[in-house]
Amino acid sequence: MELKIENLSKSFGDVKALNKINLNFTPGVYGILGPNGAGKSTLINLITNNLEREEGQILWNGGDIIRDNREYRKILGYMPQQQGYYEDFTAGAFLMYIAHLKGIAKKDARSRGSELLEIFNLEHVRNKRIGGFSGGMKQRLMLAQALLNDPELLILDEPTAGVDPQERINIRNYISRIATNRIVLLATHIVSDIEAIAKEIIIMKSGSVVEIGTSDQLLSKVSGYVWKMNIAEEELSDVQSRYIISNIRKSEEGLALKIISETRPQGAEAERQVNLEDVYLYYTNA
User: Fold this and answer.
1) What Cα–Cα distance (Å) separates residue 112 from each residue in 104, 181, 199?
2) Which residue among 159, 177, 195, 228 is the one 20 to 30 A from 121 at the CA level?
3) Distance between CA atoms of 52 and 44, rounded to whole angstroms?
4) Is 38 in a helix, a strand, or coil?
5) Do 90 and 128 touch, CB atoms closer than 8 A?
6) pTM > 0.85: yes or no
7) What is the β-pairing status of strands 183-188 and 200-205?
């Protein structure tokens, strides 16, 4: 299976939300990183056919997703960033309703719905109204509905927003486990969600892809631009005005800083512990 994006562009008035994006996806998890306004949600809405494209093609196994929309919908699972629920529905009824919209047989829907409620620790609230759920419970239910049809292409927009740390780990591990036989696109600004599980990481800024690679490749590219230094507290404002600061920690000497810079700041030493947050800051603040 393959999802291919060729010269994809989209504007809103004078704002270029996407500018000639070219990407190729095969089975595995792909992390899409970028700040607000980077174009992540626009890209996802085009891939899910929720927006009309301006220029370019989106191909699933060689066929355009607009021309083959009915068949494409059968293999697509989508978890939007903005939750859309009927608050008076129970969790079980909501999944049955979504299954009906997806054309899943009632018997299969009941079995699959129960399986997913169990996986995401929602079985005990199957008959509870969604309006009484916490934000994290609603998020897990939205992920469950995206998986009802066992999709070959799973698109997740900020899947762990509002989820507690333990559930975030559970969701991350589950996504990693099921990604061997499907394509998973995971858009987020939470670096830890994709650092360990993404086959490749796509970094976006201002409607363009600014870098793409494995976690190790990206870390290697930025490793020579990360520094550490100690300063007095009264020097902080001056340093912040000149450099990207990844971390600030109190130390015996004052403040211990982690700095992102292509040139070595005076008095700084190379930092050996480079992480994906440093990569993200380097590419999105440049």
Assistant:
1) 10, 18, 27
2) 195
3) 12
4) coil
5) yes
6) yes
7) unpaired
